[in-house]
Amino acid sequence: MHPDAIIAIAASSDSKALTQEIFGGEIGWLPWKRPGYELGLWLGKFCEENPNARGVILESHGLFTWGDTAKESYETTLEIINKAMDWLDARIQGPAFGGPKVKTLGADERRAVAEKLMPKIRGMISETEGKLGHFDDQPAVLEFVGSNRLEDLAALGTSCPDHFLRTKIRPLVIDFDPESPDIDNTVAGLEDAIAAYRADYAAYYERCKHDNSPAMRDPNAVIYLVPGVGMISFAKDKATARISAEFYVNAINVMRGASSVSTYQGLSEQEAFDIEYWLLEEAKLQRMPKPKPLAGKIALVTGGAGGIGKATAFRLAGEGACVVLADIDDAALATAKDELSSVFSKDIVRSVHLNVTDEAEVASGFSEAVTEFGGLDILVSNAGLASSAPIEDTTLDLWDKNIAILATGYFLVSREAFRLFRYQNAGGNVVFVSSKNGLAASPGAAAYCTAKAAEIHLARCLALEGASAQIRVNTVNPDAVLRGSKIWTGEWKEQRAAAYKMSTDELEAHYRERSMLKRSVFPEDIAEAIYFLASDMSAKSTGNIINVDAGNAVSFPR
Predict the structure, then answer these.
(1) CA 46 to CA 29: how far, in whole Å?
(2) What is the radius of gyration, based on Cα positions, of the chain?
(3) Which pLDDT score, from 0 to 100, does residue 258 have?
(4) 553 secondary structure, DSSP code
């Protein structure tokens, strides 16, 4: 076992003496030995020579216990851990880590700083593979990053192999002063700080490598510590980023305990390297499955609780993306989030209430995506409505509502995405879900058709503006997606049936027979086209339109 209280003792410079003081002869002590066959022989020898011992602490590693039954061994484990915790609690007096050095910013201020830092860092470290971020500002983290001993303890690295296999040998401490916060200056210094960390890691690899060592892996930091703000972690997926942060919290707890009752010591550099680049560890990494096409990508889907939006979220998540569902229907949003989480995991799905016509809500929704995942790669602009009325019956309110949601709403989310993409400096991808009606007029739907046409032209304009920054913008034009669509559950269905002088039950067959291919179109069909445009399969396409309408000659793009 690797509980924090035990590792605090095992990672102390006088861990053998502390073990004897706390446990007497019932728990033994062995010096550091990398896990493996030889350690097994050591343990066997110890048991033979110490028949009354109930366990042993292995320096810088953890606790082994045993008993005549599994239950006895388990109960001994709990007893020993609790005894170590009680002993430490009784001896840790006053502030930890040399006391506070800087103030801790308020919760909103902390998230604002994280929002500025995460996409910048992500853009700089995602050259070879996409990275997902995690922000942690729990009390234990804040105590450490605001302390006098942050710099020197962080430089020592972690002790337990289970820690640094997740967190790398040491974190990167960001140069930020919460007493006089200048986030722009901090952002300006990130490139040099990250380059210095890479150079230091490469030097560490060169100093410690063996003739048969695996090639150097990603030299970027996993853990980023920000004074007065918290901890940011980046990894190839959200779960790994979160777990890496949790392991570093364990390391913080270990350093608190060890430095309070003794002197904390990390593993020697060579021992750390030999664990990190252990050939058995490399063999395990080589057996890992190939990443999915959208692994490391973050998508925000507006109208994410509706038929097309939810189908799109499932499609993107199925290919490895993290997804932020954005919608104004809170009940449907909660249901959609639960459905995705149950199929994939809670790590990769977030939801935000987002009215695309509200400038502040749009900005807030993108901020949520950044602080939850680290940035953004894909915007699927899909929020919509449908209305139908003869032009003489079209009220100004109805006209304005269509323009607000379908034109202004698409503009607002695209503008926010462009700002973030340019700030992140790693390209980006926008997919508009427009309509056949944006290319082909329909009777009794002037407001809707006009707004949809505006979407298509906006996408063309954005494709021109974004190309130099590797931001692609494309459009999918559905038609008659009845099943699963929230649009078709309201008045629109009755209105279109009235326009075509038929019952609502006849609509699906009507649209199917009207199409050239005589086939119905479903949300999953639209999601497939969106996935194509959001993926590298279409990496050399921008400004394009894909019609998913089973064939409609009047809407052929010209």
Answers:
(1) 9
(2) 29
(3) 92
(4) G
Helices and strands of the chain, counted as H and E runs: 21, 14
Confidence of residue 266 (pLDDT cuts 50, 70, 90): confident
Determine which helix (DSSP H) or strand (DSSP E) holds 393, and give its type and residue range: none
Catalogue the long-range contacts made by 505-508 (C-beta closer than 8 Å, 24 or more residues apart): 507/480, 507/482, 508/480, 508/482, 508/483
pLDDT for 494:
66
Percent of the chain whose pLDDT exceeds 70: 95
Q: For the whole model, what pTM was predicted? A: 0.91
Edge-to-edge strand list for the sheet holding 223-226: 132-136, 230-235, 223-226, 172-173
Amino acid at 91: R
What angle do helix axes 446-466 and 409-424 make, rounded to 10 degrees? 10
Q: What angle do CA 152, 155, 157 make, to 5 degrees?
A: 125
pLDDT of amino acid 234: 97
DSSP H or E stretch at residue 359:
helix 359-373
Q: Which residues contact 544 (CB under 8 A, 6 or more apart)?
A: 474, 475, 533, 538
467 — phi, psi (to 5°)? Answer: -60, -40
**Residue 448 annotated among the catalytic residues of the structure:** yes
Give CB contacts under 8 A, 24+ apart, made by 31-37: 31/59, 32/58, 32/59, 32/60, 32/61, 32/267, 32/271, 33/58, 33/61, 34/161, 34/271, 34/274, 34/275, 34/278, 35/61, 35/161
Instruction: In whole angstroms, give the CA distance from residue 208 to residue 485.
Output: 59
CATH class of segment(s) 298-481+521-550: alpha beta
CATH number of 107-286, picked from 3.20.90, 3.20.20, 3.40.225, 3.40.50: 3.40.225
Element (H, E) at 433: strand 428-433
The answer to whether residue 488 scores a pLDDT higher than 60 is no
All structural domains of the chain with their residue ranges: 4-91, 107-286, 298-481+521-550
Q: State the Cα–Cα distance between residues 397 and 536, nearest whole angstrom.
A: 41
Separation CA 381–CA 354 (nearest Å): 12
CATH of segment(s) 4-91: 3.40.225.10
Interior angle at CA 77, CA 71 and CA 78, nearest 5: 95
The structure tokens listed for 10 are: 């095992």
Equal fold, 4-91 vs 298-481+521-550:
no
Q: Are 190 and 234 in contact (CB under 8 A)?
A: no
Q: Which of 204, 448, 511, 531 is catalytic?
A: 448
- The number of C-alpha atoms within 13 Å of 198 and in the hemisphere containing its C-beta is 12
